[in-house]
């Protein structure tokens, strides 16, 4: 079984790193601020198979759309399966039963997103002025949380997590790193890979009903009531 190779040195793009919840919180806040002014999107789809992994029949496969704004430089991959019911982190994409095939597909979709972002990088003068305003607002926001070291904007960040981030999330992040090293080595210059400290469990405890950071909160309430019965 794969075990995560953890390195907290942010200068090393070829290892799996641990992301603190407050760091991801700031990234989501910045994305929300940026998206309110710039609406360009980069989209890609990835197949989500809900069939037994030993089966070759993919009749129950679904597709998940990976959507990022031109200012969003990260994606959150939630690898929970049945326990995905009950709410999720804002912007998280559910890809259960994460394996090498899904890692390859995800890598290809990230390449599509990065290519589209590059194509969208030539903005109008008006958009550039909006971007300068956004950056100033973000700078003011960061001054309030100067203790946080956010991932460099020169990298596209992939954050994996499961419920506790003790096994599935770290294992998926390690699997993804190994696929990138083997099949897409040039991509290592453009991405950083993390798993979220404490996973969904720690996230929902910290942010509870804050809809800036949690989606499907009504579903979460129902899940909590069902567990308590």
Describe this structure in words.
The chain contains 6 helices and 9 strands; from the N terminus they run βαβββββααβαβαβα. With 229 residues, the chain is α/β, with parallel strands linked by helices. Strands 1-8-7-4-6 form a 5-stranded parallel beta sheet. Strands 2-3 form a two-stranded antiparallel sheet.
Compact summary:
The protein is an alpha/beta fold.
Instruction: Report low-confidence residues grouped into runs of 5 or more.
Output: 1-6, 8-13, 50-60
Most strands sheet: 5 strands, parallel
Count of DSSP-assigned helices: 6
Output the helix-strand order: EHEEEEEHHEHEHEH
Beta-sheet strand percentage?
A: 15-25%
CA-CA gap between termini: 35 Å
As a whole number of angstroms, the C-alpha radius of gyration is 18 Å
Query: What is the number of strand segments?
Result: 9
Write down the overall mean pLDDT. 77
- Give the overall form: globular
Q: Helix coverage percent of residues? A: 25-40%
């Amino acid at each position: 079984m794969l075990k995560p190779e953890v390195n907290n040195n942010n200068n090393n793009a070829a290892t799996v790193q641990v992301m603190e919840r407050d760091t991801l919180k700031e990234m989501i806040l910045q994305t929300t601020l940026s998206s309110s002014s710039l609406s360009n999107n980069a989209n890609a789809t990835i197949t989500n198979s809900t069939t037994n992994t030993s089966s070759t029949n993919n009749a129950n496969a679904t597709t998940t759309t990976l959507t990022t704004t031109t200012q969003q430089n990260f994606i959150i991959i939630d690898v929970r399966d049945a326990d995905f019911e009950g709410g999720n982190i804002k912007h998280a994409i559910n890809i259960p039963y994460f394996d090498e095939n899904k890692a390859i597909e995800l890598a290809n979709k990230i390449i599509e997103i990065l290519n589209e972002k590059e194509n969208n990088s030539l903005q109008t003068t008006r958009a550039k002025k909006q971007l300068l305003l956004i950056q100033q607002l973000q700078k003011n926001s960061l001054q309030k949380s100067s203790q946080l070291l956010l991932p460099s904007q020169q990298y596209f960040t992939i954050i994996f997590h499961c419920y506790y981030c003790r096994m599935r999330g770290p294992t998926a992040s390690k699997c993804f790193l190994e696929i990138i090293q083997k099949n897409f080595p040039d991509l290592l210059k453009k991405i950083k890979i993390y798993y979220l400290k404490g996973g969904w469990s720690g996230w929902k405890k910290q942010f509870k009903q804050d809809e800036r950071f949690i989606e499907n909160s009504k579903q979460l309430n129902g899940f909590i009531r069902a567990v308590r019965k």
